[in-house]
Design brief:
This protein has 169 residues and is an alpha+beta fold. It is built from seven helices and five strands, in the order βααααββββααα. The strands form two sheets. The chain has a three-stranded antiparallel beta sheet with strand order 1-5-2, covered by helices on one side. Strands 3-4 form a two-stranded antiparallel sheet. Helix 2 runs antiparallel to helix 3. The termini are far apart.
Length: 169
């Protein structure tokens, strides 16, 4: 059985990437049912869009790849990452019509990408390791030790002589 990957992307989620990153770290490298259970019990605003995205990736696996239900239940989160989206700049007005001095407020958004994959079985990992090239036992073509020693020698150059006024006299 080959490893199948399914991808889903959510763009423009109106939550700061730092806040979403905390929730994403909870579900990284988990199976889909475990991740959804964790997200149901997480009391953060970012848990809902992350759960929706994982469900969307599962729907992609079901509809686009025609995966059977048994395989869908065994899917695991291979990678999930959060990147920064566009930021809306807003200003906080204070007395006498002045804007806030330090800088404008940034209303940050984030893009979330999730990749689900079927777990690699033990048989696949063993076959991949057996296909690795083995070290050959044949002696390689090499030169004699005397010749290789001569090549590695570096001739020492004489130090530059510094001409001084005293040496000229």
């Amino acid at each position: 059985m080959s490893q199948t990957e399914v991808k889903a992307i959510a763009k423009g989620i109106r939550i700061s990437p730092r806040k979403v990153g905390v929730v994403v770290a909870l579900v990284r490298r988990r199976t889909v049912p475990d991740a959804l259970t964790i997200l149901e019990n997480t009391q953060r605003k970012a848990a809902q869009p992350v759960a929706k995205l994982i469900n969307s990736a599962v729907a992609n696996a079901r509809n686009n790849l025609r995966m059977p239900t048994a395989d869908i239940n065994s899917l695991e989160i291979k990678s999930i990452m959060v990147t920064e989206g566009s930021s809306m700049k807003r200003y906080k007005f204070v007395g006498h019509g002045r804007r806030a001095k330090p800088r404008p407020m940034l209303k940050r958004s984030s893009h979330i990408t999730v990749v689900l994959s079927t777990p690699a079985t033990e048989v696949e990992t063993k076959t991949k390791s057996s296909k690795a090239p083995k070290a050959s036992t044949k002696p390689t073509k090499s030169t004699s030790p005397v010749k290789s020693a001569k090549k590695s020698e570096v001739k020492a150059k004489p130090a530059k002589q510094i001409k001084t006024k005293e040496a000229k006299k």
